[in-house]
Known about the structure:
This protein has 141 residues and is α/β, with parallel strands linked by helices. The protein contains 4 helices and 5 strands; from the N terminus they run E-E-E-H-E-H-E-H-H. The protein has a 5-stranded mixed beta sheet, with helices on both faces. Helix 1 (39-53) packs across helix 2 (72-88) and helix 3 crosses helix 4 (115-137). The longest helix is centred in the C-terminal third of the chain and has 23 residues, at 115-137. It starts with a strand and ends with a helix. The model has no long low-confidence stretch (mean pLDDT 89).
Amino acid sequence: MLYPKIMGLDVGEKRIGIALSDPLRITAQGLESYQVQGEQEDIAYIRALCEKHGVEQIVCGLPKNMNGTIGPQAEKISAFAEKLKEATGREIIMEDERLTTVFAQRTLIEADVSRAKRRKVVDKLAAVAILQGYLDRTKIY
């Protein structure tokens, strides 16, 4: 049975990593690292991707502090997610993203990816880690 896709987002100051689930919701694949333009443009872009790829839900990484508290960056991401929910009409799931960027960086370093190339793909890989964590935790089969 095929399901509507789920989108994973790693929202940063300069880039937004974007990943999509497969139709069976088993694996997450990196889609792109989107260069931030401005809140309205970013939301419009993500909304268009949702329409294009048949996305039903969005899993957005929440950068909690290491002690589990919500800091200023997490508050900004939560506010962005709320606006995204209003604009897209999609359910937004906030997923703890602690250490996903560290995981992405280590993976790329181990793969011997140059520093310049890492900068371009680390956000996409972090989005994959966020979405894959959610998919693994909420298996539907």
